[in-house]
TrEMBL record:
Species assigned in the record: Archaeoglobus fulgidus
Protein name, UniProt field: Macroglobulin domain-containing protein
């Protein structure tokens, strides 16, 4: 039994001597194609060794070969600053150290190589004279630049954002503020507004001075739609709640909708403020009002009227958009909805 213990101890000693202590450092968990990454390797062993970058897809590069008896730092230097070739495949790579022995001894550290790309975005219908947000997700090891162009029908709008909010590993987001009121606001002339119709939207992803990915889609600008719900009858003292539902989804705090409660020698108006779902509620108090027939007018002005809100509300709240005078005050693009209401005792 004593000889068996001696043999086992000898085997353990041989194993501990032959196993090399290798230290590998990679300064990034992920890197874009064309970018630099820094490596450091340290080991002391009197064996030949190879240090290489190896990818699962077959791409790679031999960084250094050390022969028996050569000093690692004298032969290879203390570190490598390696630029990932742009024509390599993306995926998982390893900085590998292979030390020759009776069987090659491998040590490695993984990192990810990423090709910058547009990952996801959803463009819904844009509403005439709207201001909405478009979120774009980008796959990249670092923040990247996005350029957006909306053009067609004598319209040309440019936007630029940086995808710099990291949603998860290697996924960054950018949010574009698509302001279709921009052209009208420059001149206050309705002729310059972005009209309903088909447009082209180009989206480009740039990183390191190069365009890595692009998308081209058709963008539809549609007319505003307004649906109104209100009670047909209320008692004096009960509130009148007007519910408004529009297709201006995402145009939060849009205040271009005028709501008027009109009766015999009575008129009261308010502005509606849309939530992120394009909805709003406006409440009128009826305490002190006379019994009788009233009307509720809801008017989406698209914020293009030449008149003040008070002037429009007091004098032209019921003006049909197809009336010839509507063109003079830039109200021909309005959407007008009327509801009748009885206030009873």
């Amino acid at each position: 039994m004593r000889w068996l213990v001696t043999v086992v101890a000898l085997l353990i000693a041989i194993s501990s001597v032959s196993a090399a202590e290798v230290h590998i450092f990679v300064d990034k968990e992920s890197v874009n194609l064309g970018d630099q990454i820094r490596f450091q390797v340290y080991f002391e062993v009197n064996r030949s060794a190879d240090i290489a970058v190896v990818g699962d897809g077959g791409d790679g590069s031999l960084l250094c070969h050390v022969n028996d008896g050569e000093d690692l730092y004298e032969k290879c230097g203390e570190e490598w600053v390696f630029r990932i070739p742009e024509d390599w495949q993306e995926g998982t790579y390893r900085l590998k150290v292979v030390i020759d022995d009776t069987e090659p001894e491998e040590h490695s550290e993984e990192f990810k190589v990423v090709k910058p790309k547009i990952k996801e975005f959803e463009l819904k219908n844009l509403v005439y004279q709207s201001r909405t947000e478009l979120e774009v997700l980008v796959e990249s090891a670092n923040p990247a630049s996005l350029k957006l162009r909306l053009y067609g029908n004598n319209v040309d709008l440019y936007y630029e954002e940086t995808a710099d909010y990291e949603e998860e590993s290697n996924i960054y987001s950018a949010k574009f503020d698509l302001n279709l009121r921009e052209l009208y606001e420059r001149t206050r002339d309705i002729a310059d507004a972005v009209k309903p119709g088909k447009y082209t939207l180009d989206l480009k992803l740039e990183y390191g001075g190069k365009v890595w990915d692009s998308r081209r889609v058709t963008a539809s600008v549609v007319k505003p739609e307004v649906a109104v719900s209100a009670p047909e009858k209320v008692k004096v003292g009960e509130p009148v709640v007007v519910s408004i539902d529009t297709n201006r989804i995402g145009d939060t705090e849009y205040d271009g909708i005028l709501v008027v409660l009109e009766g015999n020698n009575f008129l009261l108006y308010k502005k509606a403020y849309l939530d992120e779902n394009g909805k709003a509620k406006v409440q009128f108090e009826t305490a002190g009002l006379r019994e009788g027939k009233y009307a509720i007018y809801v008017r989406d002005t698209s914020k293009t009227s030449t008149l003040s809100i008070s002037d429009l509300a007091k004098n032209y709240y019921d003006l049909p958009p197809d009336n010839s005078f509507s063109r003079i005050i830039q109200a021909e693009d309005d959407v007008l909805v009327k509801k009748e209401l009885w206030i009873v005792g």
